[in-house]
UniProtKB/TrEMBL annotation:
Residues 57-232 form the FAD-binding PCMH-type domain. Belongs to the oxygen-dependent FAD-linked oxidoreductase family. InterPro entries: BBE, FAD-bd_PCMH, FAD-bd_PCMH-like_sf, FAD-bd_PCMH_sub1, FAD-bd_PCMH_sub2, Oxid_FAD_bind_N. This is FAD-binding PCMH-type domain-containing protein. PROSITE patterns: FAD_PCMH (PS51387). GO terms for molecular function: FAD binding; oxidoreductase activity. Pfam families: BBE, FAD_binding_4. Its cofactor is FAD.
Length: 525
């Protein structure tokens, strides 16, 4: 019997022992590479969205458990802790850096939450309870079932997992109207490090604050979130206007950076900058992609008054319902049946790398020319520029762990995808993205250079060891994701999980220090 089989037998025995009555499901929701290898592989690969983390050398979990009820999650936490094996938690979304299912620790167990994906919507109270194994498409569909004039301010990809998206902040095309996804969370249910199920009242306001943007997997297994859904108009307008460098794209992007954060908050205009080859020459195309909460007539008035340079015309505009706007932004046929939102595996799986930045001061035209030239020189890595302003200017930086609010003009997502399965190409494309990231240093936020948690980026730091070393290394990336909120997150983590049971390469560290008579740790730093 190998070590995985030994862990499997011990874990399964513990799971059955903790069941209040004989549980016939216990053995059917636990997988290992040897006992039920084909099913194990199918479950593991079902929610991998970055092929860089699905190779022969990628560390694999010793066990995967796919809970179908909350007691399974409780038992999994207790049993893993008793066995001295750490756990990872996967909610079933994109996870750019694979931290929900890959670890460099010798043995680990994966809790895959995909079976816990129920969504319950109450239009009268304008609330929804969504389990963290659900994907955004499922949440959007359940809202659409009940109301055509409600939505939720979250991501544009229906296959993003609710658990990771909300616990890391979450944003979408309604960010300027309604703020982040996490700004609309009113309650949650979790399993803590001791295997207890808690809600907002029993976990307390500090822990509730932490799991709304601080990365839930640092503190607990989040079972569900209760969220406030928001009103949306019957008629929304979407558009996409593409401009080349020859069509004045550089000047348009320069103007966009000042207009987009201050324009009517019903309007969100993303800019996508992508290299392309035209007649054998490398150039960059700028796509201005808009979502307006209202009809095209009012949109055109706003654009003519504030951004006439883009020359948006009636024929560029498409009037749609809110759920149709979701399909449009997901690059799907906007007339697709709403049931397509329930398809958990509708997107392609590529090799990819993502990074992020925040821009707080307008970039000059000459600098934009340099940026366009750099994009063209690299030839594959692109930018997604997402405007802030509006509601984001009004929410205090410490309202949730997500501090990147007022003062940010826009956020950059560096985006590189490729399909070739070649380690040399992997390294080349990743280095191109890092090169572009380094090139942008002078234009973006400083002291610290900030990053967005949902675009996990191991290049900006990883936890190295425990104690003081773990804390100091955790502070490097922690300050970039959370700024001054990092200190409060560390204190909460130390109180609720002093043994650092819930941990990844970029989790919240515990304070190094000594325990008092009540068992609490106090920092010596």
């Amino acid at each position: 019997m190998n070590s995985n089989d030994s862990i499997y037998e011990s874990f399964l025995h513990c799971l059955q022992q903790l069941s209040p009555q004989p549980d016939p499901e216990a053995s059917t929701i636990v997988y290992t590479p040897t006992v039920n290898a084909s099913a194990y592989t199918a479950v593991l690969e079902s929610n991998i969205r970055n092929r860089r983390f699905n190779t022969a050398s990628t560390p694999k979990p010793a066990i995967i458990i796919t809970p179908t009820k909350y007691s399974h999650v409780q038992a999994a936490v207790i049993c893993a802790k008793n066995l001295g094996v750490r756990i990872l938690i996967r909610s079933g979304g994109h996870d750019y850096n694979g931290r929900s299912y890959v670890s460099h620790e010798k043995k680990f167990i994966l809790i895959d939450m995909f079976n816990l994906h129920n969504v319950s919507v109450d239009i009268e109270s304008e609330t929804a309870v969504v389990e963290t194994g659900a994907q955004l498409g499922e949440l959007y569909y359940r809202i659409w079932e009940k109301s055509k004039t409600h939505g939720f301010p979250a991501g544009v990809c229906p296959t993003v997992g609710v658990g990771g998206h909300i616990s890391g902040g979450g944003y979408g095309t309604m960010i300027r109207k309604y703020g982040l996804s996490v700004d609309h969370v009113t309650d949650a249910r979790i399993v803590d490090a001791n295997g207890r199920i808690m809600d907002r009242k029993s976990m307390g306001e500090d822990l509730f604050w932490a799991i709304r943007g601080g990365g839930g997997a640092s503190f607990a297994v989040v079972l569900s979130y209760t969220v406030k859904i928001v009103p949306v108009p019957e008629v929304n307008t979407v558009f996409r206007v593409k401009k080349t460098v020859a069509e004045n794209a550089v000047n348009l992007v320069w103007k966009w950076q000042s207009v987009a954060p201050s324009i009517d908050r019903d309007l969100f205009i993303r800019v996508m900058l992508m290299p392309e080859t035209v007649n054998g020459r490398s150039t960059v195309q700028a796509s201005f992609i808009g979502h307006f909460l209202g009809g095209s007539e009012r949109l055109l008035q706003i654009m003519n008054n504030n951004f006439p340079e883009l020359a948006l015309k009636k024929e560029d505009c498409l009037e749609v319902s809110w759920v149709e706007s979701v399909f449009y932004w997901a690059n799907l046929d906007y007339k697709s049946p709403a049931e397509l939102l329930l398809d958990r595996h509708s997107d392609d799986v590529n090799f990819l790398i993502r990074k992020s930045d925040y821009v707080q001061k307008p970039i000059s035209i000459s600098s934009w020319e340099s940026i366009f030239n750099k994009l063209g020189e690299l030839g594959k890595c692109g930018f997604l520029l997402n405007p802030y302003g509006g509601k984001m200017e009004e929410i205090p930086a410490d309202a949730t762990p997500c501090p990147h609010r007022a003062g940010n003009l826009f956020k950059i997502q560096y985006s590189m995808n490729w399909t070739e399965n070649d380690p040399k190409l992997d390294e080349m494309y990743m280095n191109q993205t890092r090169d572009l990231f380094d090139f942008m240093t002078e234009y973006v936020s400083k002291n610290p250079r900030c990053a967005f948690l949902n675009y996990r980026d191991l290049d900006i730091g990883v936890m190295a060891g425990s104690g003081e070393r773990g804390y100091n290394s955790g502070k490097v990336y922690g300050k970039k994701y959370f700024k001054e909120n990092f200190h409060r997150l560390v204190k909460i983590k130390t109180e609720v999980d002093p043994d650092n049971f819930f941990r990844t390469e970029q989790s919240i560290p515990v304070l190094p220090g000594i325990k008092n008579s009540e068992g609490f740790l106090f920092s010596r730093i």
